[in-house]
């Protein structure tokens, strides 16, 4: 049985956007993203599939004009 997600995806994407904005895609490590989101890398992989998946979620948020909660 799958565990219930115990974090807010929007909050995680907002935090990741800050990392990608500051370091760029190549400069941002999964460790950086995990620290910024206060999540383990396993949780990020489970939710987004990969660093690219998280980046695409951040781009989608940016493109559709949903402001981050910084």
TrEMBL record:
DNA-binding region: 29-48
Record-annotated HTH tetR-type domain positions: 6-66
Keyword field contains Transcription regulation: yes
Entry keyword Transit peptide: no
Pfam families per the UniProt record, alphabetical: TetR_N
Classification via Gene3D superfamilies: Homeodomain-like
Lineage: superkingdom: Bacteria
Key words, A-Z: DNA-binding, Transcription, Transcription regulation
Molecular function per GO: DNA binding
Family matches, as PANTHER family: HTH-TYPE TRANSCRIPTIONAL REGULATOR YJDC, TRANSCRIPTIONAL REGULATORY PROTEIN
Protein name, per record: TetR/AcrR family transcriptional regulator, transcriptional repressor for nem operon
Originating species: Asanoa hainanensis
